[in-house]
């Protein structure tokens, strides 16, 4: 107890009025939120004046790491040293003094809504650093000019676009000439035509001796300005290397996978076409990667779900046709439960409940990176998200398929079954060669509808990581315009895919015998399908 009090007292007495070296060191840093470990014993040393880019997938702990450096989050274990001095026990004036020497650019800008752009920058200069108003305003205007927003000096945050707000936030972070500056996704919301100017400001900072730690998804930005690149995933630092090594010859398999998915080549002809159509930047850069990755993942989840749904439905129908009362009851319960429970509830159950019931060894094996689990399009199928999505869709759709095929089986006359029995067919042979083909032929139209519905729902299933989806939406500036174009692109892709899949299934499916009775039968099932949909 006394040692803890002494440590706190010593930390509080640390002088951060001026950082002699502006170095940052993390030693065995752990951050936990309840039972969830976000950072797991992280070690990292950043030299004075060094520019370090932190890359990694969303939810990997990148933002938490830099928030700990500024003590916006408290450590669960370990220690962080600024200028060689521990900071975890700083409180009150000592902590405020440290923060005044560290600039922080937030992902969501966090401008003071009641102040103008100029006032946002000058406020801390006046009331934290003790500048007079004239000097503070002059410094604020200089910084606004540097980021290309001098004409917006008297504009409030609500009158600025997302990109403009971010540039004001960068100017605010630079106002006190901090010796360390932390960037949390600094380019995520910048206007395309202004991104170069802002990056140039940051490049100038990188050569001014300031220590910069930049969390970013922008590969080219990290490659151009960073002295070192840090890759973090699952709360662990997996790789640290100079950019020329990191981007050309990454060592860790997870880093290789991340970079491969982040850099998808596009042919020049396609670039020209997309540029002509791309009026809000959705068909270029990171938004394009989200669309392509999401679309390809949806296609693969759809195929896996179709296979699982078909196998489960055939198994359930086989059980029902055995005539065994227990088997019929089991099938009835299955259909009732999974047909009437909302898909979203089922997905949450498989992903959050059933998944955690698996043995630890199985979970570890699935979470590990296996090169053989990569599908065309860089879609990894041996992941919790893919498996739970495909399985949930398969189970959900199988309940509807059983009902549709059973409806088709009812049209098969009892006489045909008797004839098959008389010929010596086994129960399985009757089902396989007589009942199932006719049941499919009689109900093929509604069956195709169920498969198309599976494709539609797979976009929801494969987007089960709602935090990731929300994060991506927040990155897009001019949200309404981006959302409109992204919605148009996504709708066109899914409509086209639905048409192709529908035509393929219709062409490959069984055909009822030609004739009047066949036409009448198809009309009956068309009406039944409409009533069922209602």
TrEMBL record:
Pfam families: ABC_tran, BPD_transp_1. Residues 24-259 form the ABC transporter domain. GO terms for biological process: amino acid transport. GO terms for molecular function: ATP binding; ATP hydrolysis activity; transmembrane transporter activity. The chain crosses the membrane at residues 290-319, 331-352, 486-506. Gene3D superfamilies: MetI-like, P-loop containing nucleotide triphosphate hydrolases. PROSITE patterns: ABC_TM1 (PS50928), ABC_TRANSPORTER_1 (PS00211), ABC_TRANSPORTER_2 (PS50893). Coiled coil: none annotated. It is found in: Cell inner membrane; Cell membrane. Its main location: membrane. It is a multi-pass membrane protein; Peripheral membrane protein. GO terms for cellular component: ATP-binding cassette (ABC) transporter complex. Residues 295-505 form the ABC transmembrane type-1 domain. Belongs to the binding-protein-dependent transport system permease family. HisMQ subfamily. Belongs to the ABC transporter superfamily. NCBIfam families: HEQRo_perm_3TM. This is Glutamate Aspartate transport system permease protein GltJ (TC 3.A.1.3.4). The lineage of its organism: Bacteria, Pseudomonadati, Pseudomonadota, Gammaproteobacteria, Enterobacterales.
């Amino acid at each position: 107890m006394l040692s803890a009090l002494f440590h706190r007292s010593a930390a509080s007495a640390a002088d951060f009025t001026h950082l002699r070296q502006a170095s940052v060191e993390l030693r065995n840093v752990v951050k936990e939120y309840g039972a969830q470990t976000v950072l797991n014993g992280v070690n990292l040393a950043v030299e004075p004046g060094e520019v370090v880019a932190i890359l990694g997938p969303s939810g990997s702990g990148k933002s938490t790491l830099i928030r700990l450096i500024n003590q916006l989050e408290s450590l669960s274990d370990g220690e962080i040293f600024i200028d060689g001095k521990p900071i975890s026990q700083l409180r009150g004036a000592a902590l405020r003094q440290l923060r005044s020497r560290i600039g922080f650019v937030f992902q969501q800008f966090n401008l003071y809504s009641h102040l103008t752009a100029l006032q946002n920058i000058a406020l801390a200069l006046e009331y934290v650093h003790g500048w007079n108003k004239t000097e503070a305003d002059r410094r604020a205007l200089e910084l606004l000019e540097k980021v290309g927003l001098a004409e917006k000096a008297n504009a409030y945050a609500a009158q600025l676009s997302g990109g403009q707000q971010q540039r004001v936030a960068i100017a605010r972070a630079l106002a006190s000439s901090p010796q360390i500056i932390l960037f949390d996704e600094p380019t995520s919301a910048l206007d395309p035509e202004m991104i170069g100017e802002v990056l140039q400001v940051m490049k100038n900072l990188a050569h001014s001796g300031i220590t910069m730690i930049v969390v970013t998804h922008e590969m080219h930005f990290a490659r151009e300005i960073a002295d070192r690149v840090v890759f973090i995933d699952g709360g662990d630092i997996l790789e640290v290397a100079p950019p020329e090594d990191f981007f050309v010859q990454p060592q860790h398999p997870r880093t290789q996978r991340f970079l491969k998915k982040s850099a998808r080549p596009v042919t020049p002809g396609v670039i020209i076409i997309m540029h002509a159509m791309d009026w809000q930047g959705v068909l270029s850069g990171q938004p394009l990667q989200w669309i392509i990755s999401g679309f390809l993942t949806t296609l693969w989840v759809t195929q896996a779900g179709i296979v699982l749904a078909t196998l489960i439905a055939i198994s359930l129908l086989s059980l029902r046709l055995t005539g065994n009362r227990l088997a019929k009851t089991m099938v009835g319960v299955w259909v009732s439960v999974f047909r009437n429970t909302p898909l979203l509830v089922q997905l949450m159950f498989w992903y959050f409940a059933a998944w955690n019931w698996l043995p630890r060894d199985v979970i570890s094996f699935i979470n590990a990176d296996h090169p053989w689990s990569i599908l065309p399009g860089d879609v990894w199928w041996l992941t919790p998200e893919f498996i739970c999505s495909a399985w949930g869709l398969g189970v959900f759709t199988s309940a509807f398929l059983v009902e549709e095929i059973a409806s088709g089986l009812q049209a098969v006359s009892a006489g045909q079954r008797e004839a098959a029995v008389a010929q010596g067919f086994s129960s399985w042979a009757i089902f396989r060669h007589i009942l199932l083909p006719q049941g499919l032929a009689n109900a093929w139209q509604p069956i195709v509808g169920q498969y198309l519905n599976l494709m539609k729902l797979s976009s929801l299933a494969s987007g089960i990581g709602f935090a990731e989806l929300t994060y991506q939406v927040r990155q897009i500036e001019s949200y309404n315009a981006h959302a409109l174009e992204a919605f148009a692109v996504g709708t066109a892709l899914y409509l086209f895919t639905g048409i192709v899949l529908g035509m393929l299934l219709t062409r490959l499916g069984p055909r009822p015998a030609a004739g009047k009775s066949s036409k009448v039968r198809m009309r009956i099932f068309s009406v039944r399908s409409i009533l069922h949909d209602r």
